[in-house]
Amino acid sequence: MKRTLREIANLVGGKIIGDEDIEIKGVGGAENASSGDITFALNEEFLKLAQQKAGAVLIVDTLATEDSPNSLVIVDNPRLAFAKVAKLFAFKPYYRPGINKNAYIDENAEIGENVSIHAGVTVEAGAEIGDNVILAHGVYIGHNVSIGENSIIHPNVVIEYDSQIGRRVEIHPNTVIGSEGYGFEPGESGYVKIPQFGNVVIKDDVEIGSNVTIDRAATSSTIVGRGTKIDNLVHIAHNVEIGSDCLIVAQVGIAGSAKIGDRVTLAGKSGVVGHLTVGDNTTLISNSVITNDVPPNSVISGYPAHDHRLERRIKVARKKLPDLLKKVRQLEENIKSLEEKLEKER
């Protein structure tokens, strides 16, 4: 695939300095780009490096120069522009239109146009697969599942019955959507399982990493909002509701019925206790656990999580505890010595 620099500039809303008719064949880093690639630079050091190899460079206007050996494209955010351009040249895994003869498609399933369904795929009755959907090897699609157009489901993903997957959703290998929620009630002869009658709803433009589990709701729906991005190894329990454009980083755990607002970031290895509400635009620092409701626009950390600035002061003070303990012991010895001295003088 080739694109002229003019086409690329139009895509990212950039201004070209240099030859706008050159053809770009791919993308690369400043260190390893070839003459047919476009790359980006955020400072003069990387711009000089990129100018030695790349065919064109995405930059901010403060780096612009008229005597550049290669073409430049001025944009507001070179990294974001590079991401958009890279998608043009990205390899489309598993894109192979047609239905492999070794896939099982129930006669009562509905299959859209231009789908790529690979060997080992199972699509159960009542399922609806949208146009241009890719189901890679070994994917299981349960009864009455719907998958919106242009979604990519990677190998060995399991999407259990009644789940609803939006448009342009990408789900990476070995993830399970719609597994049973963890619901048990103690009884006279042991724990009694609470049936999970609900489903999972994944809105448009969500990306879900590998080995993620998202449980079905006990009743109603477990929901992941539009545009949210979930990293690998995340667990989302039953009846959780996650807003739009959230970032859920690796090894996060969200307990049942928690409600996460829009544009919330949960950093790696953090957690949210069940039945809590986390306000919009909240950031939870890594290795922290939310144990109470959180108002919007909060930056919190620690266990239990609280104001991040206070937590940083606590951590600084904690480092001083050994020396402080020595001083306290010394003071105790001094006081004891004084008391003994006073006792002798009486």
TrEMBL record:
The active site is at residue 238. It catalyses: a UDP-3-O-[(3R)-3-hydroxyacyl]-alpha-D-glucosamine + a (3R)-hydroxyacyl-[ACP] = a UDP-2-N,3-O-bis[(3R)-3-hydroxyacyl]-alpha-D-glucosamine + holo-[ACP] + H(+). Residues 21-88 form the UDP-3-O-[3-hydroxymyristoyl] glucosamine N-acyltransferase non-repeat region domain. One of its GO terms (molecular function) is UDP-3-O-[(3R)-3-hydroxyacyl]-glucosamine N-acyltransferase activity. Keywords: Acyltransferase, Coiled coil, Lipid A biosynthesis, Lipid biosynthesis, Lipid metabolism, Repeat, Transferase. It comes from the Bacteria. Its EC number is 2.3.1.191. GO terms for cellular component: membrane. Transmembrane segments: none annotated. GO terms for biological process: lipid A biosynthetic process. Pathway: Bacterial outer membrane biogenesis; LPS lipid A biosynthesis. Residues 314-345 form a coiled coil. Belongs to the transferase hexapeptide repeat family. LpxD subfamily. Catalyzes the N-acylation of UDP-3-O-acylglucosamine using 3-hydroxyacyl-ACP as the acyl donor. Is involved in the biosynthesis of lipid A, a phosphorylated glycolipid that anchors the lipopolysaccharide to the outer membrane of the cell. PANTHER family: UDP-3-O-ACYLGLUCOSAMINE N-ACYLTRANSFERASE (PTHR43378), UDP-3-O-ACYLGLUCOSAMINE N-ACYLTRANSFERASE 1, MITOCHONDRIAL-RELATED (PTHR43378:SF2). Homotrimer. This is UDP-3-O-acylglucosamine N-acyltransferase. It comes from Orenia metallireducens.
